[in-house]
Write a structure and sequence with these properties.
The protein is an alpha+beta fold and about 160 residues long. The protein has a single domain, classed as 2-Layer Sandwich (Alpha-Beta Plaits), CATH 3.30.70. Strands 1, 2, 3, 4, 5 and 8 form a 6-stranded antiparallel β-sheet that branches. The chain has a two-stranded antiparallel sheet with strand order 6-7. A hairpin with a 2-residue loop joins strand 6 and strand 7.
Length: about 160
């Protein structure tokens, strides 16, 4: 079994779409561990706040199949693939870590390069798996988060219920 960590977020009706995405993830992968959900200012453009969290699950599926299922869940939540990179999103599901896989794969670079640069990814991952070792640095996620410059991160905890 491979432990997979996925960042989930969006800023178009996130109160409805994040629970929808979680239901899709449970249907596709079974039991999930879910971090707290945070509202964060849009990054890279002006827009509504994003709601972000991280989920973890175990799977025997290869990375390509996991990515295909994530894309299907995104689309079911209203994701448009042709949207600009820095724009409003109905749903983003991004693989952060896929076990200890390191390298470039079709559709993914692992570990996700911006994991260590984006508070909205690293913070929820630290909530969920603080003792987990980052596969390239060998440092615990909690230590990476403690050293992270949080100056510009002004999150609000939000409920998904």
């Amino acid at each position: 079994m491979t432990r997979v960590f996925v960042a989930a977020g969006g800023n178009i009706d996130p109160a409805r779409r994040l629970p929808q995405a979680l239901a899709g993830l449970r249907a596709a992968f079974g039991e999930l561990a879910v971090s707290p959900c945070y509202a964060n200012a849009a990054f890279g453009f002006e827009g509504e706040d994003f709601h972000n969290l991280v989920v973890a699950f175990d799977t025997n599926l290869p990375l390509a199949d996991v990515l295909a299922r994530l894309h299907a869940i995104e689309e079911a939540c209203g994701r448009e693939r042709q949207a600009a990179k820095w724009a409003a999103r109905a749903m983003d599901l991004d693989v952060l870590l896929f076990g200890d896989c390191v390298g470039e794969f079709p559709g993914a670079i692992l570990p996700r390069p911006d994991l260590l640069k984006r508070a909205y990814m690293l913070g929820p991952l630290a909530d969920l798996a603080p003792a987990l070792l980052h596969p390239t640095s060998g440092v615990a996620i909690a230590e990476l988060w403690a050293a992270f410059d949080k100056t510009d991160w002004q999150p609000r905890l939000v409920s998904l219920a």
